[in-house]
Predict the structure.
Amino acid sequence: MTDLRQITFVETDLDALKDAPGRVAVFVNAAGQLGRGARRLNRLTRGSVARAVEGEAWEKLPEGGVVSLAFPGGMAADAIDIVKLERRAEVEPARKAGAALARLAGASPVTVLGETLVRLPQVVLGLALRGYGYTEVRSDKGKPLEPATVHCPKPAEIEAACAPLLGVASGVFFTRDLVNAPANVLTTTEFATRLEGLRELGVEVEVLEEDRLAELGMNMLLCVGQGSASPSKVVVMRWKGAEADPLALVGKGVVFDTGGISLKPAGGMEDMTMDMGGAGVVSGVMKALAMRKAPAHVVGLVGLVENMPSGEAVRPGDVVTSMKGDTVEVINTDAEGRLVLGDVLWYTQEHVKPAAIVDLATLTGACIVALGHENAAVFSNDDPFANAFLRAAGTEGEGAWRMPMGKAYDDLLKSNVADMKNIGGRPAGSVTAAQFLRRFVREDMPWIHLDIAGVASLKSEGPLSPKGASGWGVLALDRLVRDRFEVQADDGKA
């Protein structure tokens, strides 16, 4: 799995700057006022730093932007990166600044003059998150990332403040690795094996195999995978960092989606390796919580299947009985994720008995039509819970937008032969998918459905990630846990 760049925190040593290798980063505010580190660099470069922050170009540079001085005279470094950032910058520009430094550095070593920057831990998080590349299946793994050294006052305190953030970054990397992996590498069995590795961090992991799923009556999930040679599984991960009713996170884990008998067009089908993105996010959140030892009780559940056409595959027109007992007419075998999630949602309520549920899935192309690649779609039966998530996503800079639900949409799922159909037609496709899932959520259960089809994997780089898997959702859900589900040690209440 991809490791974070090694980051070391040291007491500020301005005398070491002359011989620092790679790139040296320094922060200067919009007014161009030079701090101690910038003044030292300015002397070493005979006034180049001061000249770089004068004039119209510096004024027009957005906060978090960088001006680079290549091969600065009088220094061993390849470049000085002058970052435009206020001492009390907001979180988003601070993270973008760190990401910009990582993008410029590539694999080179980085020296960061943090000085008295209030948001230095957020800069470090951005530096860590952008220092990612998926090389698992390359013969040439590329150069390993050289370490970053952060010069700052009270380095032990800054390191302690950064530790939980870097734990979350490890969870993001875990998600990215899973979503980027090709389907012949990340089979359902391999996925389950990687999740079993979380036991080393203190996560309890249980793998439910097909025979157990059949005993439970999870026929919707099983029908999706019955055309594949890869066995269907459900993996249950429990982080019990507190005594409390758990938050449940449920993820769609279709390791490859051909569409089944309702076969997808060939063009772009290779992208369906990311159709397990919801399960990838759930897995990353569980790792993040374990890495930072979160004082919360969270259970992650993922349904792992492969949707393939074969003589054994489920057919359009087949009727299957869910674990809940409702019957479903399968109109389109490419609307398979909701079948997986429906059974896992019901299992979660029957066996985990959570305080609330969030499910995630790369569920519908209609979501991308509606929201593009900027926002995930948020559906919920509970306004306070939905608002709490939207605040968390906003705090972490992860786009999310609340979508409608209602009886008129639900009526589109009526079937002539079964209790419901698995699709409601072309209109409001992401909404009818959410309405299908809503039928497997009890009335008194706070629930959020996140359709992440547009944000799980990107064709171009994001603010904190290269192109490919983004890791969207790990930061927001970790924040939701912090804000709403962590138990305070003094009173034992969440």
